[in-house]
Structures are given as C-alpha cells and as structure tokens.
Design brief:
The chain has 342 residues and is of the alpha/beta class. It has a single domain, classed as L-arginine/glycine Amidinotransferase, Chain A, CATH 3.75.10.10. The protein is built from 11 helices and 15 strands. Strands 2-1-15 form a 3-stranded mixed beta sheet. Strand 10, helix 5 and strand 11 form a beta-alpha-beta unit. The longest helix has 21 residues. 40% of the residues are buried. InterPro entries: Amdntrnsf_FN0238 (IPR014541). Keywords: Transferase. It holds the Pfam family DDAH_eukar.
C-alpha cells in the first residue's frame, strides 16, 4: 500500500450547511447561495451531496467513518481536513484555525474514535497558537507528500511559516513554502485548491507561482522520484480541479486499487490528455457537489485521511486466538502442549 493514499477516511455529515461569511474575505472560491433558496433547501442539498460522496467512496472500497454534526453554528464543519491530519507511526496533528467560528469544529469524539480504533501514539495540538494570531489549517494549508516527506505550502493568513517549520520538525517533513496568486494578484488561500499530490501523479497549478525559480524548484521536487506532473490552469483551479485526493480502495474481489477522488465539476474541467495521465495510475471517482462547493472547498477539503494502523476488532481478536489454539493445543490449566506431544 502506498504511504500517500489512505484506505480510510473521515467525513462530517453537517445537518446545517451554508457558506461561511467569516471566511469570504480571503476565500475567492466562495459563492453566494442561489437567490431565493432557503437555508433548509441548501442544507438538504448539501446533505445529499455528502451522502453521495460517502456512497461513492464505499463503492470504490474505501473505509468511511461518518460523523453527524447537528451544531448549527459550524457552517464549515464539512471540511475536517483543516483541523485534523493523521500520520504513519501513530501520530495525529490538530491545527490552529483562522476563522474564530471554525475553531469549535475540532471534535473530541473524532479523536477518541481514532484512539480506540487505530494505533495512536501521540496527538500534537497546535491550536493553542490561535491567541497569538498564527494559523496553519491542516491539509488545506499544506499539501503533503508522505512518500518524499515534503510539505508544499502557499503562504497566506492561514499558513504561517513559523508554524509550518514547527510542524515539519515535529513530523519530519521538508517545508517547501512559496507564494501563489491568481491573475488578479489575490493570494491563494489554501494550497489544496491548486495542488494534489498522489503516489505516481500530481496535479499542480504551477503557473500560479509567480517566482519562476521557485516554480521550477517545486516542479523538480514533485517529479524527483518519477512522479508525473499534470499542470493545471488557473481556469481549471477555479473549477476545483486541484482539490482532489488520492485514496486506496478495493475491487469487489478484494484487489487493491488507487482512486483519485474529485468533484464532477473538477472532472469536467480536465482535458482528455490530463485524464489519461491521471488514469495511468488512478481510477477517477467524481461526485457532483455543487452546493458544498459554494463554500469555497471541494472533495479534498471534505476528506480527512486516516494514515494510521487499524486496531483489530473484537471478533478479529477472537478469531486470531482460536486460530492459535487450534494450531497449539493447551492443557486444562492453560499451558501450551508441545507440538510433538499434541
């Protein structure tokens, strides 16, 4: 299994959904709800889109944990990747959030589920930095290459380089920070709208890095291990083509397969040659989520990947014990019988 593509994800099923007015100032991807559409209708449409994504991922053989959110004061809770990331070896990071009304998206029950169902060694919580006005919004602010251990990061209010350096020291990543702007000179608010790094393919809007030298360095670092780089245009970024994520699923007969999860809008924006390049290593799974995209994020933002080893469930432990006992008979007092005497 690739270290890059998790086989398990966390989704948040937000019963009340609306684009967050507190994030509109620097999120150029947000859009208004259609005129005359009620909050209830918007929420119902978003719920249907969340369920469609969960169903599509399960159909592709991805393990999906869904947490309900009935709190009406968390408009962006559908985007958990901004406050949480998990890492091989049993490590979890919790992040400082820029918008004050997003900070209570962090959920104790999610962390407890991870500790009970997966092997968690340490949780490193950076959220105490929020009063100092420094933020690093998880795998929205950073696009992580888990194979080469690189954290690609577009500088912004939501990606403080001091916190980035601290994260990279704690989790053993190489920081690769750069400026990224659109054609109007507006800084990119989250790196994951312009970049997606998979095992053998990456999609990246390199043209949005104005420093030509830095752009070349990013391209070289992405491709150093033979990874193919699919260059996105700003127009495709506007369609959320960069906001995709590679996952590891299973075929119905149990064979491993890699998928690239993205929105249907993002898939429609890709050229045939770009699709062909992606499909050399991944199957594209596209889901239509137009209501959720009004909030300025897409499929990648909705997914918190689980890069942790799973603990065996009770029935699996019982089966393992029974298998051991079958192979190694025991005496009535619980001692193993030597195989030669069994």
């Amino acid at each position: 299994m690739s270290a890059q593509a998790p086989s398990t994800v966390i989704l948040i099923r937000a019963e009340k959904f609306t684009p967050n007015p507190a994030t509109a100032a620097d999120n150029a991807f947000q859009a208004d709800v259609p005129a005359g559409q009620s909050d209830d209708v918007t929420s119902a449409k978003a719920l249907a889109e969340m369920d469609a994504l969960a169903d599509a991922l399960r159909e592709a053989g991805v393990r999906v944990h869904v947490f309900a959110d009935e709190d009406h004061t968390r408009p962006d809770s559908v985007f958990p990747n901004n406050w949480l990331s998990t890492h091989a070896g049993g490590y979890v990071a919790v992040y400082p959030m820029y918008a004050s009304n997003r900070r209570h998206e962090r959920r104790h029950d999610v962390l407890e589920m991870l500790k009970s169902s997966y092997r968690v060694q340490s949780i490193i919580d950076y959220s105490g930095l929020e009063p100092d006005g420094v933020f690093l919004e998880g795998t929205g602010a950073m696009v992580l290459d888990h194979v080469s251990r690189v954290a690609y990061t577009a500088r912004s209010y939501r990606a403080d380089t001091a916190v980035l350096e601290r994260f990279c020291t704690d989790f053993n990543y190489e920081p690769m920070a750069f400026d990224a702007i659109d054609s109007a000179g507006v800084p990119v608010y989250h790196t994951n709208v312009i970049a997606c790094v998979g095992t053998d393919v990456a999609m990246f809007a390199l043209e949005m890095i104005p420093d030509v030298r830095r752009r070349a360095q990013v391209r070289e670092r992405l491709s150093v291990n033979g990874r193919k780089v699919v260059e996105l245009t700003e127009a495709q970024v506007r369609e959320f083509a960069g906001n995709a994520v590679e996952l590891c699923g299973r075929t119905p007969d149990g064979r491993r397969r890699y998928i690239m999860a993205m929105s249907a809008r993002a898939r429609r924006s890709l050229r045939p040659d770009q699709v062909a390049a992606i499909e050399e290593s991944c199957e594209i799974v596209a889901v239509d989520i137009p209501t959720i995209e009004l909030a300025g994020g897409s499929v990648r933002c909705m997914i918190a990947g689980v890069h942790l080893d799973r603990r065996p469930e009770e029935h699996e432990l019982t089966e393992a014990v029974e298998a051991i006992n079958e192979d190694h008979p025991v005496t009535p007092d619980g001692r193993y019988v030597a195989m030669a005497d069994a």
